[in-house]
Amino acid sequence: MAEMTTPSAPASQVRALPLVLLVLAVAALAAVPFALPSMQLLVNFALAKGIAVLGVTVLLRAGQVSFGHALFFGISAYCGAFLIASWPGADLVVLIVVGALGATVSGLIVGLFVVRYRGIFFGMLNLAFSMIFWSILEKFYHITGGADGIRLPRPTVLGLSLERGPFELVVYYLAIALMLGLGWFTIRWFASPVGHLFQTIKTNETRLEYLGVSPKRALLSGYLLSAALCGVGGALMGITQGVVTPEYVWWVRSAEMVFIAVLGGAGSVPGAFIGALIYETVRIYASALAGDVWQAILGAFLLVIILFAPGGIVGIARRIGGRS
Protein backbone atom coordinates (compact mmCIF):
# COMPACT_ATOMS: atom_id res chain seq x y z
CA MET A 1 0.00 0.00 0.00
CA ALA A 2 1.46 3.30 -1.06
CA GLU A 3 2.21 5.75 1.78
CA MET A 4 -0.20 8.68 1.88
CA THR A 5 1.54 12.11 1.90
CA THR A 6 0.09 15.51 2.66
CA PRO A 7 0.63 18.01 -0.14
CA SER A 8 2.70 20.94 1.05
CA ALA A 9 2.93 24.49 -0.22
CA PRO A 10 5.86 25.34 -2.50
CA ALA A 11 8.93 26.64 -0.67
CA SER A 12 8.70 30.02 -2.42
CA GLN A 13 5.16 30.49 -1.09
CA VAL A 14 6.24 29.58 2.42
CA ARG A 15 9.10 32.11 2.27
CA ALA A 16 6.83 34.82 0.85
CA LEU A 17 4.15 34.42 3.54
CA PRO A 18 5.94 36.45 6.28
CA LEU A 19 6.57 39.27 3.80
CA VAL A 20 2.91 39.31 2.77
CA LEU A 21 1.82 39.37 6.41
CA LEU A 22 4.26 42.20 7.13
CA VAL A 23 2.93 44.28 4.23
CA LEU A 24 -0.66 43.71 5.37
CA ALA A 25 0.23 44.61 8.97
CA VAL A 26 2.00 47.83 7.94
CA ALA A 27 -0.89 48.77 5.66
CA ALA A 28 -3.34 48.20 8.53
CA LEU A 29 -1.22 50.34 10.89
CA ALA A 30 -0.91 53.09 8.28
CA ALA A 31 -4.69 53.19 7.87
CA VAL A 32 -5.44 53.57 11.60
CA PRO A 33 -5.38 57.43 11.73
CA PHE A 34 -8.04 57.55 9.01
CA ALA A 35 -10.07 54.38 9.66
CA LEU A 36 -9.90 54.32 13.48
CA PRO A 37 -8.65 57.75 14.65
CA SER A 38 -9.60 56.96 18.26
CA MET A 39 -7.00 54.15 18.22
CA GLN A 40 -4.12 56.29 16.91
CA LEU A 41 -2.73 57.26 20.31
CA LEU A 42 -3.05 53.72 21.67
CA VAL A 43 -1.15 52.28 18.70
CA ASN A 44 1.46 55.02 18.99
CA PHE A 45 2.07 54.07 22.63
CA ALA A 46 2.26 50.42 21.62
CA LEU A 47 4.86 51.14 18.93
CA ALA A 48 7.01 53.18 21.33
CA LYS A 49 6.84 50.40 23.93
CA GLY A 50 7.44 47.79 21.25
CA ILE A 51 10.74 49.43 20.28
CA ALA A 52 11.79 49.48 23.94
CA VAL A 53 10.70 45.85 24.39
CA LEU A 54 12.86 45.02 21.40
CA GLY A 55 15.81 45.96 23.61
CA VAL A 56 14.68 43.46 26.26
CA THR A 57 14.18 40.89 23.51
CA VAL A 58 17.82 41.28 22.44
CA LEU A 59 18.99 40.28 25.93
CA LEU A 60 16.58 37.33 26.03
CA ARG A 61 18.41 35.91 23.02
CA ALA A 62 21.46 35.63 25.30
CA GLY A 63 19.37 34.07 28.05
CA GLN A 64 19.52 37.18 30.22
CA VAL A 65 16.52 38.96 31.74
CA SER A 66 16.83 42.58 32.80
CA PHE A 67 14.41 43.87 35.44
CA GLY A 68 15.73 47.42 35.10
CA HIS A 69 15.80 48.37 31.43
CA ALA A 70 13.29 51.13 32.05
CA LEU A 71 16.40 52.99 33.21
CA PHE A 72 17.39 53.63 29.58
CA PHE A 73 13.77 54.29 28.62
CA GLY A 74 13.65 57.08 31.21
CA ILE A 75 17.14 58.48 30.64
CA SER A 76 16.37 58.98 26.97
CA ALA A 77 13.05 60.70 27.69
CA TYR A 78 14.67 63.03 30.26
CA CYS A 79 17.53 63.80 27.83
CA GLY A 80 14.93 64.99 25.35
CA ALA A 81 13.08 67.01 28.01
CA PHE A 82 16.27 68.74 29.21
CA LEU A 83 17.37 69.42 25.64
CA ILE A 84 14.14 71.08 24.58
CA ALA A 85 14.04 73.05 27.84
CA SER A 86 17.43 74.56 27.01
CA TRP A 87 16.83 74.72 23.26
CA PRO A 88 13.17 75.59 22.54
CA GLY A 89 12.17 74.55 19.08
CA ALA A 90 14.62 71.66 18.88
CA ASP A 91 13.83 69.26 16.07
CA LEU A 92 11.96 66.01 16.58
CA VAL A 93 14.73 63.90 15.05
CA VAL A 94 17.38 65.63 17.17
CA LEU A 95 15.44 64.77 20.35
CA ILE A 96 15.28 61.10 19.42
CA VAL A 97 18.95 60.95 18.42
CA VAL A 98 20.11 62.72 21.59
CA GLY A 99 17.86 60.49 23.71
CA ALA A 100 19.22 57.34 22.08
CA LEU A 101 22.80 58.57 22.54
CA GLY A 102 22.14 59.33 26.21
CA ALA A 103 20.71 55.84 26.71
CA THR A 104 23.64 54.23 24.87
CA VAL A 105 26.26 56.05 26.92
CA SER A 106 24.40 55.10 30.09
CA GLY A 107 24.23 51.55 28.80
CA LEU A 108 28.00 51.53 28.41
CA ILE A 109 28.55 52.75 31.98
CA VAL A 110 26.08 50.30 33.53
CA GLY A 111 26.96 47.51 31.11
CA LEU A 112 30.66 47.49 31.99
CA PHE A 113 29.59 46.48 35.48
CA VAL A 114 26.59 44.17 34.97
CA VAL A 115 28.03 42.02 32.15
CA ARG A 116 30.20 40.30 34.74
CA TYR A 117 27.10 38.62 36.15
CA ARG A 118 24.51 36.19 34.87
CA GLY A 119 21.00 35.09 35.69
CA ILE A 120 19.24 36.55 38.70
CA PHE A 121 22.25 38.70 39.64
CA PHE A 122 22.24 40.29 36.19
CA GLY A 123 18.53 41.02 36.44
CA MET A 124 18.61 42.40 39.99
CA LEU A 125 21.65 44.62 39.37
CA ASN A 126 19.84 46.24 36.47
CA LEU A 127 16.86 46.76 38.76
CA ALA A 128 19.13 48.36 41.37
CA PHE A 129 20.54 50.88 38.89
CA SER A 130 17.08 51.83 37.68
CA MET A 131 15.82 52.37 41.24
CA ILE A 132 18.86 54.53 42.06
CA PHE A 133 18.06 56.74 39.10
CA TRP A 134 14.39 56.80 40.10
CA SER A 135 15.39 58.07 43.55
CA ILE A 136 17.53 60.81 41.99
CA LEU A 137 14.60 61.92 39.84
CA GLU A 138 12.30 62.00 42.87
CA LYS A 139 14.68 63.79 45.26
CA PHE A 140 16.25 66.44 43.02
CA TYR A 141 12.97 68.24 42.55
CA HIS A 142 14.51 71.59 41.57
CA ILE A 143 16.18 69.94 38.56
CA THR A 144 13.93 67.05 37.59
CA GLY A 145 10.54 68.33 38.72
CA GLY A 146 10.21 65.45 41.19
CA ALA A 147 7.12 63.29 40.91
CA ASP A 148 5.50 65.93 38.67
CA GLY A 149 8.17 65.41 36.04
CA ILE A 150 9.08 67.77 33.22
CA ARG A 151 6.83 68.96 30.46
CA LEU A 152 8.14 68.20 27.00
CA PRO A 153 6.86 70.88 24.61
CA ARG A 154 6.09 70.00 21.04
CA PRO A 155 9.34 70.01 19.00
CA THR A 156 9.63 71.27 15.45
CA VAL A 157 9.65 68.92 12.47
CA LEU A 158 12.41 69.78 9.99
CA GLY A 159 12.25 73.37 11.22
CA LEU A 160 8.45 73.61 10.96
CA SER A 161 6.13 74.25 13.92
CA LEU A 162 3.12 71.99 13.42
CA GLU A 163 -0.28 72.05 15.06
CA ARG A 164 -1.24 69.16 17.31
CA GLY A 165 -3.07 67.08 14.70
CA PRO A 166 -0.40 67.13 11.96
CA PHE A 167 2.35 66.72 14.57
CA GLU A 168 0.75 63.60 16.04
CA LEU A 169 0.37 62.23 12.54
CA VAL A 170 4.09 62.78 11.85
CA VAL A 171 5.06 61.11 15.14
CA TYR A 172 2.75 58.18 14.36
CA TYR A 173 4.26 57.48 10.95
CA LEU A 174 7.76 58.05 12.30
CA ALA A 175 7.03 55.35 14.89
CA ILE A 176 6.02 52.94 12.12
CA ALA A 177 9.20 53.77 10.18
CA LEU A 178 11.32 53.23 13.30
CA MET A 179 9.56 49.91 13.97
CA LEU A 180 10.44 48.70 10.47
CA GLY A 181 14.00 50.10 10.42
CA LEU A 182 15.04 49.03 13.90
CA GLY A 183 13.28 45.66 13.58
CA TRP A 184 15.15 44.97 10.34
CA PHE A 185 18.45 46.13 11.86
CA THR A 186 17.98 43.88 14.91
CA ILE A 187 17.24 40.84 12.75
CA ARG A 188 20.34 41.55 10.64
CA TRP A 189 22.40 42.03 13.81
CA PHE A 190 21.25 38.63 15.15
CA ALA A 191 22.40 37.08 11.85
CA SER A 192 25.79 38.83 11.95
CA PRO A 193 28.94 37.20 13.42
CA VAL A 194 28.72 39.52 16.43
CA GLY A 195 25.09 38.55 16.92
CA HIS A 196 25.91 34.84 16.73
CA LEU A 197 28.63 35.23 19.36
CA PHE A 198 26.19 37.14 21.54
CA GLN A 199 23.53 34.42 21.31
CA THR A 200 26.09 31.72 22.12
CA ILE A 201 26.15 33.10 25.67
CA LYS A 202 22.79 31.38 26.20
CA THR A 203 23.80 27.99 24.83
CA ASN A 204 27.50 27.51 25.51
CA GLU A 205 29.39 30.41 27.03
CA THR A 206 32.39 28.21 27.81
CA ARG A 207 32.88 27.53 24.10
CA LEU A 208 33.34 31.26 23.50
CA GLU A 209 36.21 31.27 25.98
CA TYR A 210 37.79 28.26 24.26
CA LEU A 211 37.60 30.20 21.00
CA GLY A 212 39.38 33.14 22.57
CA VAL A 213 36.28 35.36 22.58
CA SER A 214 35.44 37.36 25.68
CA PRO A 215 31.84 36.58 26.76
CA LYS A 216 31.73 39.87 28.63
CA ARG A 217 32.58 41.80 25.49
CA ALA A 218 30.03 39.81 23.47
CA LEU A 219 27.34 40.49 26.08
CA LEU A 220 28.30 44.17 26.25
CA SER A 221 27.75 44.57 22.50
CA GLY A 222 24.20 43.30 22.84
CA TYR A 223 23.65 45.30 26.01
CA LEU A 224 24.53 48.53 24.19
CA LEU A 225 22.11 47.67 21.39
CA SER A 226 19.37 46.91 23.92
CA ALA A 227 19.99 50.22 25.74
CA ALA A 228 19.87 52.17 22.47
CA LEU A 229 16.58 50.52 21.47
CA CYS A 230 15.06 51.28 24.87
CA GLY A 231 16.30 54.85 24.42
CA VAL A 232 14.55 55.29 21.09
CA GLY A 233 11.34 53.92 22.60
CA GLY A 234 11.61 56.22 25.62
CA ALA A 235 12.22 59.33 23.52
CA LEU A 236 9.27 58.46 21.32
CA MET A 237 7.02 57.88 24.33
CA GLY A 238 8.07 61.19 25.93
CA ILE A 239 7.37 63.12 22.73
CA THR A 240 4.01 61.38 22.32
CA GLN A 241 2.88 62.01 25.91
CA GLY A 242 4.39 65.51 26.18
CA VAL A 243 5.60 64.94 29.72
CA VAL A 244 8.23 62.75 31.37
CA THR A 245 8.00 61.59 34.97
CA PRO A 246 9.96 59.26 37.29
CA GLU A 247 7.36 56.62 36.47
CA TYR A 248 9.32 56.08 33.28
CA VAL A 249 12.11 54.32 35.24
CA TRP A 250 9.91 52.76 37.95
CA TRP A 251 10.37 49.00 38.34
CA VAL A 252 6.83 48.38 37.15
CA ARG A 253 7.82 49.78 33.75
CA SER A 254 10.72 47.32 33.54
CA ALA A 255 8.46 44.43 34.54
CA GLU A 256 5.99 45.58 31.91
CA MET A 257 8.69 45.29 29.24
CA VAL A 258 9.54 41.72 30.28
CA PHE A 259 5.82 40.91 30.43
CA ILE A 260 5.29 42.14 26.86
CA ALA A 261 8.40 40.31 25.58
CA VAL A 262 7.14 37.00 27.00
CA LEU A 263 3.61 37.65 25.81
CA GLY A 264 4.71 38.32 22.23
CA GLY A 265 7.29 35.55 22.13
CA ALA A 266 10.56 35.65 24.05
CA GLY A 267 13.40 36.46 21.68
CA SER A 268 11.11 37.26 18.74
CA VAL A 269 11.46 40.61 16.95
CA PRO A 270 7.88 40.68 15.57
CA GLY A 271 6.70 39.39 18.96
CA ALA A 272 7.93 42.57 20.68
CA PHE A 273 5.52 44.71 18.63
CA ILE A 274 2.66 42.20 18.56
CA GLY A 275 2.92 41.78 22.32
CA ALA A 276 3.01 45.55 22.87
CA LEU A 277 -0.08 46.07 20.73
CA ILE A 278 -2.04 43.34 22.51
CA TYR A 279 -0.84 44.51 25.93
CA GLU A 280 -1.83 48.13 25.34
CA THR A 281 -5.22 47.13 23.94
CA VAL A 282 -6.00 44.78 26.84
CA ARG A 283 -4.67 47.29 29.39
CA ILE A 284 -6.70 50.22 28.06
CA TYR A 285 -9.98 48.33 27.64
CA ALA A 286 -9.61 46.20 30.76
CA SER A 287 -8.89 49.27 32.89
CA ALA A 288 -11.93 51.03 31.36
CA LEU A 289 -14.33 48.10 31.77
CA ALA A 290 -12.90 46.56 34.95
CA GLY A 291 -11.00 49.33 36.72
CA ASP A 292 -10.42 47.39 39.93
CA VAL A 293 -9.28 44.08 38.50
CA TRP A 294 -7.60 44.92 35.20
CA GLN A 295 -4.18 43.92 36.55
CA ALA A 296 -5.63 40.52 37.47
CA ILE A 297 -6.97 40.16 33.94
CA LEU A 298 -3.54 40.91 32.48
CA GLY A 299 -1.89 38.50 34.91
CA ALA A 300 -4.34 35.71 34.04
CA PHE A 301 -3.76 36.41 30.36
CA LEU A 302 0.00 36.00 30.76
CA LEU A 303 -0.48 32.88 32.92
CA VAL A 304 -2.48 31.23 30.16
CA ILE A 305 0.20 32.15 27.60
CA ILE A 306 3.04 30.73 29.73
CA LEU A 307 1.17 27.50 30.56
CA PHE A 308 -0.26 26.70 27.14
CA ALA A 309 1.88 28.68 24.68
CA PRO A 310 5.41 29.22 26.02
CA GLY A 311 6.40 30.57 22.60
CA GLY A 312 4.01 33.47 23.05
CA ILE A 313 1.66 34.87 20.41
CA VAL A 314 4.28 34.36 17.72
CA GLY A 315 4.69 30.73 18.78
CA ILE A 316 0.93 30.19 18.45
CA ALA A 317 0.95 31.77 14.99
CA ARG A 318 3.85 29.58 13.88
CA ARG A 319 2.14 26.43 15.10
CA ILE A 320 -1.05 27.34 13.26
CA GLY A 321 0.96 28.19 10.14
CA GLY A 322 2.86 24.90 10.39
CA ARG A 323 -0.34 22.90 10.39
CA SER A 324 -1.84 24.63 7.39
Explain what this protein looks like in three dimensions.
The protein has a two-stranded antiparallel ribbon with strand order 1-2. Helix content is 76%, strand content 1%. The chain is mainly alpha-helical. It has helices spanning 11-35, 40-61, 70-86, 92-114, 119-139, 141-144, 164-191, 193-210, 215-241, 251-264, 269-289, 294-308, 312-323; strands at residues 150-151, 243-244. The protein is globular and about 55 Å long.
Secondary structure topology:
Layout: H1 11-35, H2 40-61, H3 70-86, H4 92-114, H5 119-139, H6 141-144, E1 150-151, H7 164-191, H8 193-210, H9 215-241, E2 243-244, H10 251-264, H11 269-289, H12 294-308, H13 312-323
Helix pairs in contact: 2-7, 2-9, 2-10, 2-11, 3-4, 3-9, 4-9, 7-8, 7-9, 8-9, 10-11, 11-12
